Amino acid sequence: MIRRLSLRLSLMALLALLGALMVSGNPASAESRVPFPRIPKALGATVHDGVAIRSEHMKRLFHQRDETMRQGIRPKDERLQGCLSCHAVKGEDGHAVNYEDPKHFCRVCHDYAAVKIDCFECHASTPDVEISAGGTQ
Amino acid sequence: MKPITYTRLQMPSATYFSRLAVALGVVAVGLGSAWYMEHNGHWVTGMDNQTVWGMPHVFAVFLIVAASGALNIASIGTVFGRTTYKPLGRMSGLLAIALLIGGLSVLMLDLGRPDRLIVAMTHYNFSSIFAWNIFLYTGFMAVSGLYLWTMMDRPMNRFNKAAGLLAFVWRLGLTTGTGLIFGFLIAREAFDAAVLAPLFIAMSFAFGLAIFVLVLAVLYDGAGRPMAGYLVRRMGRLLAIFVAAVQYFVLVQHLTSLYAAEHAGVERFILIEGGAITALFWIGQVIVGGLIPLIMLLGNKDNLTLPRVGTAAVLVIVGGLAQVYVIIIGGQAYPLELFPGMTETSTFFDGVMHTYSPSIAEIGLGLGGCAIAATITMIAMRMLDFLPADLSDKTVNPHHKS
Amino acid sequence: MTECPTSSSRRQFLNAASVLGAGMVIAPGVTLHGISEAKAGLPRVSSKVRWGLLVDANKCTAECTACVSACKIEHGLEGHGRVKTDAQWIRKVELRDRGSGRTQSLPVMCQHCDEPPCVDVCPTGASFKRADGIVLVDKHTCIGCRYCMMACPYKARSFVHEVTTGQKSHSPRGKGTVESCTFCVHRVDVGRQPACVEACHKDGKGAMTFGDLKDPNSDISKKLVAHGGVRIRGDLGLDPGVRYQGV
């Protein structure tokens, strides 16, 4: 009977621990931890499904870059510059911030998820042509 | 001959750990150098757009070539049936793996994008000897591991000959692949030669045996476990044969190159006018690494004592490093002739000899690779039974009458 | 025997879960397939075209470096004041014939060979030749081993030796990868001329002609038929796309 009691107690302790871990992962309850990022609003009109793009964007980027690189396919609406102009985040000087700035669109989520971005080692991280909110130049 | 017993590395813990600490310290220097080079970019090194491969590659190629040669001792025992070398098979396999890992570490840490190792492991262009080498090198570690298994695990002993043959053939392929890294370069006058493949094989025999002799000298003679004179004499003579083979291929390479008018420029550079390269060739490679060891090792057999053979081994290693330096750096120092018959000048160093001086970071990285090999060897020898307990006549001398 | 009341709902749950799971696994692939289907009609490079460059060295002068400056500006090749390590995609080479003493000046860049040694030796396949003959470095896959730089007979490639910032959007380049003249592929793909050729005609001596070597009616083909054009180190059998007159 003692053995069964201690087994039950340890099972309950384990469940309590798991529950605590799950609850502590809830962003709403974490105050001293890193806040869940506030994703900056895009400047242009909606182009793609917000939820799907979050999980798909790397696959799309990898797929597109190979097509552009190896076969010279350059679709006008799949350019990195296109992403960068809509998703530009303005700094204090009114111009889009580059990747060095933690306010950069990609960094907002990637810093939180602690996934290092390699793209901007080589690619420019600001748009050549800046657009203002509402999608006008 | 009585059966061989193997032991672990037996030295007082204090000595062992202090030596291991030194090795780990040098490994830390190597890693720090690699971080410094990667973080700032290669402009902090002596390598540039003219000399793209430098000191790290000299160390890496030397270690990789020596690794394949270190396995040779086991092959002589297993494949060629020489009972004298049979006790040394386990150490040979271990050293081969350790030296290869050391060399590969230097190579990988010097990459412009070492973080892309996974890309290198998943994207292959099979017309590149580099891509083949990735398989040859990792395969070598697997094959050597298998070979060690057949030597060290009694139920596996019956596969020893097969594993030994596989390892022998594999490492000939590996060394050929290493030599052909340079042999396949049609652009460079100092390379572009089929003879580089057998030259590298001869170099591997010489460097591998030289390192092996020194390891034995430290672990046995240095620890009061004398080695049979028979073994020392045989290794000394074998080293002489290997050194002679290296000098032969070098001679053939330069003679054929000298015969071609188009190569007169590069030969003049290496043999006469190359400054440091010429000095390293004649003094380092030919005299220190070739002639002096040959003189020392080809005299009266009774004079082949361990101090003599050991010194010759040190000279072979020094000469070997000089040789790899001349091959890699010297081969890049001579400019590419875009327009034969014309002198060329430009802002991109066309038409001029390319100078190179290694930075501390590059030397640090190279030494770090050597230290990685040493660390692996020390730890493995301490944990598993690699060392024959006795290398006296009763173990290694088939003619010994007890 | 009474049937367990929850067994059918459990079965339903498992069915639904496996369908959902399979759907979640397949859906991303279906979406991507949909995306690539949509792009099926876009132009891609083909081997019907082979881009080439003709340099009339008779027109080049030693003082003119219009092509070099234009390339630097176009691709954002900022110099760091370190000649040994700064990237040079195109350079002027001054030649002097050893016998006659005749001097010549001409630009040398990646020769965009038909049998590029740099493509052969690249372990990851990052160095590749496009169907239209332009030889490029796919910097996503380049590991910075510099073997291509050892292999190139023309010393065309440069290694990026330092951290790079402020890149041009049309010319990504970064630390630790290898790069070389791209024939301004970002311009060529939209029907424009490489920056060096444009500058040569605008500010230079009009020595460079760029065009399709496979089109007999292109400027470059006509000039090659009329006056010929040699390949640098033609003996190597690499068939470069860059030809020279007047050497």
Report on the structure:
- The complex is a heterotrimer of chains A (137), B (402) and C (247).
- Chain A has 137 residues and is mainly α.
- Chain A contains 4 helices and no strands.
- By secondary structure, chain B is mostly helical.
- The longest helix of chain B has 31 residues, at 229-259.
- The N and C termini of chain B lie close together (9 Å).
- Chain C is of the alpha+beta class.
- Chain C folds into 2 domains: 1-42; 51-245, 2-Layer Sandwich (Alpha-Beta Plaits).
- Chain C has helices spanning 7-38, 66-75, 117-121, 147-151, 185-188, 195-202, 219-227, and strands spanning 51-56, 90-97, 103-109, 127-129, 135-137, 158-159, 178-179, 208-212, 242-245.
- The longest helix of chain C is centred in the N-terminal third of the chain and has 32 residues, at 7-38.
- Chain C is elongated and about 100 Å long.
- Residues 31-38 of chain C have low confidence and may be disordered.
- Chains in contact: A-C, B-C.
- Strand 2 (342-346) of chain B pairs antiparallel with strand 2 of chain C, so a sheet runs across the interface.
State the name of the first-level CATH class of chain B: Mainly Alpha
How big is the Rg of chain A? Answer: 22 Å
User: Quaternary status of these chains?
Assistant: heterotrimer
Helix and strand composition category of chain B: mainly alpha
Overall geometric form of chain B? globular
**What is the string of SSEs of chain B from the N terminus onward?**
EHHHHHHHHHHHHEHEH
CATH level-4 homologous superfamily of chain B: Formate dehydrogenase/DMSO reductase domain
CA-based gyration radius of chain B: 22 Å
Number of helices of chain A: 4
| SS class of chain A | mainly alpha
The number of distinct β-strands of chain B equals 3
Q: Biggest interface in this structure?
A: B-C, 49 and 57 residues
Counting DSSP H or I runs of 4 or more residues, the number of helices of chain B is: 14
What's the CATH topology name of chain B? Formate dehydrogenase/DMSO reductase fold
Structural features:
heterotrimer; A: 137 residues; mainly alpha; 4 helices; elongated; B: 402 residues; Formate dehydrogenase/DMSO reductase fold; two-stranded antiparallel sheet; 3 strands; 67% helix; globular
Topology, pairings included?
The complex is a heterotrimer of chains A (137), B (402) and C (247).
Chain A (H helix, E strand, L loop, with lengths): L1 H23 L25 H22 L8 H7 L18 H9 L24
Chain B lengths: L5 E2 L5 H28 L14 H16 L1 H7 L10 H22 L6 H6 L6 H24 L7 H24 L12 H24 L9 H31 L4 H10 L2 H22 L8 H28 L8 E5 L13 H24 L3 E2 L4 H4 L6
Antiparallel strand pairs in B: 1-3
Chain C lengths: L6 H32 L12 E6 L9 H10 L14 E8 L5 E7 L7 H5 L5 E3 L5 E3 L9 H5 L6 E2 L18 E2 L5 H4 L6 H8 L5 E5 L6 H9 L14 E4 L2
Parallel strand pairs in C: 1-9
Antiparallel strand pairs in C: 1-8, 2-3, 4-5, 6-7
Helix pairs in contact in C: 2-6
